[in-house]
Write a structure and sequence with these properties.
There is one protein chain. Strands 2-1-3-4-5-6 form a 6-stranded parallel β-sheet, sandwiched between helices. It is built from 11 helices and 6 strands. The chain has 2 domains: about 140 residues, 3-Layer(aba) Sandwich (Rossmann fold); about 60 residues, Arc Repressor Mutant, subunit A (Orthogonal Bundle), CATH 1.10.10.10. Helix 9 crosses helix 10. Strand 3, helix 4 and strand 4 form a beta-alpha-beta unit. It has about 220 residues and is of the alpha/beta class. The chain starts with a helix and ends with a helix. The chain is globular. Pfam families: GerE (PF00196), Response_reg (PF00072). It comes from Amycolatopsis xylanica. One of its GO terms (biological process) is phosphorelay signal transduction system. Keywords: DNA-binding, Phosphoprotein. This is Two component transcriptional regulator, LuxR family.
């Protein structure tokens, strides 16, 4: 270990996610495996996040993309003018191109999915605090395509996709990957009944009849 690593202060991190169980798990995991990060606060809504970030002035905010009252982009919109030095790293179940592009355009420094390991998450937090941009594999291409603005770039919006809510897209993405309803419920921290409700809604909005047609539909729109 170098002298700089020995004397470096922990990176102050604030967690934003609307699932309390997920926040608790991340906090416990980070506390148990590293002294490079100090979790200074957490929030489950946009309003709580804005107030908490302003109060604690962290170096890095781990930011969920979809929340009931506005999501990660809204947190960025409200916080960045007041605290321009705070770095935001999106941490989401979604790996959809439109979600990645929207939050990066709002000002996030990176985007990683919730499949990331604890050690990889620590490295990502430290790297963005040092000024690097960090993305899960395959997500960087979405950003490069969008900002290059060249033919064949990933679409930012899709009229058909716009019919679906963020949660319906999450359910559809996992369904298209072959997840069972119970597995989707566990992944998204919702009930099986809620999964069934979302699937029925997606089928109605897309005018499709079964999960196999939905899988093809999702694949055509690069959701899988």
């Amino acid at each position: 270990m170098t002298e700089s690593q020995q004397t470096r202060e922990p990176v102050k991190v604030f967690l934003v996610d609307d699932h309390a169980l997920f926040r608790a798990g991340v906090r416990t995991e980070l506390d148990s495996i590293t002294d490079e990060i100090q979790v200074v606060g957490e929030a489950g809504s946009v309003a709580e996040a804005v107030a908490g970030i302003v109060r604690t002035n962290p170096q890095v905010v781990l930011l969920d993309v979809h929340m009931p009252d506005g999501g990660g982009a809204e947190v960025l919109k409200r916080v960045r003018p007041e605290l321009p030095d705070v770095v935001f790293l999106a941490l989401s179940v979604s790996d959809a191109a439109e979600d990645v592009i929207a939050v990066i355009r709002a000002g996030a420094r990176g985007y990683v999915t919730k499949t990331i390991s604890s050690k990889e998450l620590v490295r990502a937090v430290v790297r963005v605090s040092d000024g690097d941009a960090v993305f899960s594999p395959r997500l960087a291409g979405f950003v490069l395509d969008a900002f290059a603005d060249r033919p064949g770039s990933a679409p930012i919006s899709d009229p058909d996709l716009d019919l679906l809510t963020p949660r319906e897209r999450d359910v559809l993405r996992l369904l298209a990957r072959g997840y069972a309803y119970k597995e989707i419920a566990s992944e998204l921290f919702i009930s099986v009944k809620t999964v069934e409700t979302h699937v029925s809604s997606v089928l109605r909005k897309t005018q499709l009849s079964n999960r196999y047609e939905l899988s093809r539909w999702a694949s055509d729109r690069r959701l899988v």
